[in-house]
Each structure stands twice: as C-alpha cells, then as structure tokens.
Design a protein that fits this description.
Blueprint: H1 2-25, H2 33-40, H3 44-55, H4 59-77, H5 82-88, H6 94-105, H7 109-115, H8 122-126, H9 140-146, E1 150-154, E2 158-165, H10 172-187, E3 196-200, E4 213-219, E5 231-234, E6 238-247, H11 249-267, E7 269-271, E8 277-280, E9 292-302
Antiparallel strand pairs: 1-6, 2-4, 2-5, 3-4, 3-8, 6-9, 7-9, 8-9
Helix pairs in contact: 1-2, 5-6
Length: about 300
C-alpha cells in the first residue's frame, strides 16, 4: 500500500506540474480552471481541491503570485512602461496592476522600480535572506574580467527533471539530484554529452520560502521516459548569456548579481521570461557541493 500511495502522489504531482507549466507560459491571460483541469487530467469539480492540497495555495492565488513575480522581474530588468508590464503580466489596466502589486508587496510598482528591493516588504520579513551579496565596491572592468560573459545557443534536447518545492529546506535540491543520478545510473539513460543542470524557478526575494521551486535536471538519451516523480520533456532551444564560476555559493551569488545588475543593462540584451540555468561542468561531482564548478546562464534576447 505504501508503494502504491507514493506512486499515486508522484503521478498527481506530475499532472499538477503540467498545469503549472501551462500557467507559467501563459501568464498574460487569466487561467481557466476547466482548461487547467483538462491539462492535468482531473475532473474540474475536484481539480481545485487537488491543486491546493499539492501546491499549498489555490489556483487563483498561485496564478496571481506568478503574474506579480513576472512583473517584478520586468520592473527590475527592463525599461518597459508600466502599462506594458501590466498587460504582459495579465492585468487589464495599470490601476488594477498597481493595486495588486501594492497589496502584495507594500509599495507601488513605481516605488519598487526606483529602489529595486523589498527590504521592508512582508516577504523579506518572513524570509530575510541576504541576496544582496553584490560586489558594489568593484568596478565593471574588474568584474567582467572575473566573470567573462559569452553568448551561447543551447539545445539540450530531451531532459529529465525532478521539481522540488520548499527547495531551500533540508537539502531538497541536492537529494533530488541524488535520486535523478540513481535513476540514470540504474536505467542507462545517459548520452555521451549528458550534463546535470539546475533551475531555480522562483526568486527568494519575492516568493515565500515554502513556495520556492527548483528543478534538478539531466540531459538524457532518446530512450529515456518519465517514471514516478521524474518527468522527461523536450527542452526548448534558447540563447544564454553565460559565465563560469569555480568556488562556493557566495561566488555564485556575486556572479548572478554582476550579470543582472551590471552586465545586462550594458549588453543590448533583455532577459527572457525563463529561469536562469546552472550547468554542472563535471557531472561526476554533481553531489559534491563543497566546491562548485558551474556555468551560469541567463536566457536572453536582443533588445528591440
């Protein structure tokens, strides 16, 4: 019974993940409960209860949070007008967008655009981690030497992933990589150029800690198929702005800070609405987190 229960839970979570992925890709439009239920393969009558039981918040609350988090990224990293950001984030007007933003974060979109921080927000009070390990005392020339940037087109092909929730707790990301590696070892799902990579789907400055999601990923052979908590998909092609780091997590945070706050505004690129990617350069050391060898990538597109 325990194995059947575990299998059912994994199946339900995978099906809910498909609905969440659709929501994430269509944040410009209000979610249809019937449409999402169909994507997840549940009865519309039961879908809302199942969703809340697995995700921990209602469909509408989850969609609204994702829409606002998209708006936060656009306010931080683009010069788009508020009306455009409101529309891209699924709001019918700038006023409804501003009202929702202020209610959630305690300041208006204009105020946030000026300060680019939520130091006094409810979320920072609940989850006061310091994501501002910013090398502000260093000049651009020094940082671009430390973190040289290359633009690359990537095509990962088929990718297996495990999605972790509350991902900053209890080494959940590391444990997920361990389960993914065991699955690939046992089933021979590697290809010659297989690599592990990770994606943090949420910004812990914006998203409540328990809602933060992380995907532990592995590029796999064409023969690999989904099993239990492991989902196999065709990963979209994309263009990345990349830099490499060899060190601890502080160095990783410093590199991201440079990419977003210094390099990106000067680059002629805008960030895509996709999570950053952390590629492990040595797949044999994916479970050794005492020292990182990573290629960090931000999905980007040319401005204009």
């Amino acid at each position: 019974m325990e194995n059947n229960s575990s299998s059912t839970k994994s199946d339900y979570r995978n099906r809910i993940n498909k609905a969440i992925d659709f929501m994430q890709a269509n944040l410009h439009a209000p979610p249809s409960l019937d449409g999402l239920a169909e994507i997840a393969g549940f009865s519309p009558y039961h879908f809302h209860r199942i969703f809340k039981g697995i995700v921990g918040e209602s469909v509408i609350a989850h969609a609204n949070r994702l829409r606002l988090e998209k708006a936060v990224r656009m306010l931080k990293h683009t010069d788009l007008k508020l009306s455009k950001i409101a529309s891209e984030s699924g709001y019918e007007s700038s006023s409804s967008f501003s009202r929702a933003f202020s209610e959630s974060y305690g300041l208006s979109p204009r105020e946030f655009r000026r300060s680019k921080t939520f130091k006094d927000s409810k979320i920072r009070q609940v989850f006061p981690i310091d994501m501002e390990y910013i090398a502000s005392d260093k000049g651009f020339d020094e940082l671009i030497t430390k973190f040289p940037v290359a633009i690359k087109n990537i095509d990962f092909g088929r990718v297996a992933y495990i999605r972790s929730w509350n991902s900053y707790s209890d080494d959940r990301c590391l444990k997920a990589f361990g389960r993914l590696k065991n699955w690939a070892d046992e089933n021979g799902n590697y290809r010659k150029d297989s690599c592990f990579f990770g994606m943090s789907l949420d910004d812990p400055e914006v998203t409540p800690k328990e809602q933060c999601r992380y995907e532990s990923c592995l590029t796999v052979s064409e023969a690999a198929s989904s099993a239990g908590e492991i989902e196999v998909i065709q990963f979209p092609k994309m263009q990345l702005a990349t830099t490499r780091i060899f060190g601890d997590l502080n160095l990783c945070t410093e590199a991201y800070a440079f990419l977003f706050s210094s390099w990106l505004p000067r680059s002629g690129y805008d960030p895509e609405h996709c999570p950053a990617i952390e590629i492990f350069l040595d797949r044999q050391k994916v479970l050794d987190w005492s020292h990182f060898s990573l290629e960090l990538g931000i999905p980007v597109k040319r401005k204009g």
